[in-house]
Amino acid sequence: MTGLELLAYNNKQAKEESEEEPEFDSQLRLELPLGVAGQDLEIAEDYVTQTIDIRIPYADEEYFYDYPMLGSSDHIDSLSYENESGYGIVEFITDKVYEISSSYDENYFYIDFLTPHEVYDKVVVIDAGHGGNAPGATKQGIYEKDIDLDIVLELKEIFDTSEDKSIGVYYTRTDDSNPSFENRAGLANKSDADLFISIHNNSTQSGRMSNINGTQVMYDEKKADVEHGTKGLAEICLEEVTAMTGSSNKGLVEGNEIYIIRSSEAPVALIEVGFMTNQTELNNLRSKEYQMKVAQGVYNAIMRAFAEGY
Ligand SMILES: [Zn+2]
After folding, report:
1. Which of 48, 162, 195, 240 could form a disulfide with 301 if both were Cys (CB 3.0 to 4.6 A apart)?
2. Looking at residues 231-238, what average pLDDT do you find?
3. 57: exposed, middle or buried (C-beta count within 10 Å: 0-12, 13-18, 19+)?
């Protein structure tokens, strides 16, 4: 029996055993193993793959059968249970991005799946280019993937320390991983993001060091006419990043051939912050001070976009 089949079976059993259907306000109800309190359960969410793990201490191999889970399977694509060295792990894979809302009483643990927009006024997805064994542009032993990530982590720092918690921000990566293009665009589409911004860095076509420098932003020219769409967002990003960094404005670039751009349902902008093939710009891009300015520019762009009605 799959986890979802077991859930359906439990619901049926519960209905047959009692006159009335067991009622609770949440989507799912887990029973706490004897001696385990609700606060001992740990929830881990991987938004990029829409995977939610709930770790239950002292849940053994038979837990799923001994303590039947009840509730609705809405939005759950797959449900499994595994026992691992003293822990039981209930794993959900959901059809979209959800925030878990949980509560508990003496006997039960309750789970609800909230959409990002039920939790936040606005939703932004930030993508650091490349990662893992895909370094992107490489110059003088410096990988583009690391600069892209450093900038995104500076941006994350700004959001994390902001008083304003009305904006939900999801990141395709915050470490040296390399999510698939499908997962990157999927995070934006499955969270119904209001904005999708990707951070990259440029190099000349030949890859040789040159005088060419400055910031470019890519957008989806096939959706260029959409009001509050990709082209307007790209313009805002270009203006705000160059205003903060003082880099030269090299204009907008058509980017429909880029998978994450053409696949994004949200207004999307891919910022090529600077040229790694320009020595001055490469030195800048490596410095924390400059990375912080870039991050502030992207942050300002996001705030301006929302102020302008995105
Ligand atoms: Zn790149």
Report:
1. 240
2. 98
3. middle
Is residue 81 within 8 Å of 97, Cβ to Cβ?
no
pLDDT per residue over 251-285, tens digit each?
Answer: 999 999 999 999 999 999 999 999 999 999 999 99
Ligand 1 centroid distance, CA of 128 (Å): 9
Per-residue model confidence as pLDDT tens digits over 63-103: 999 999 999 999 999 999 999 888 999 999 999 999 999 99
Residue 197's pLDDT is what? 98
Residue 91: what residue type?
E
- Domains of the chain plus CATH, in order, are 3-114 (no CATH), 118-307 (3.40.630.40)
Residue type, 102: S
Beta strands in 85-174 (DSSP E): 87-94, 99-104, 108-114, 122-128, 138-139, 142-143, 167-171
| CA 202 to ligand 1 center in whole angstroms | 6
145 C-alpha to ligand 1 centroid (Å): 7
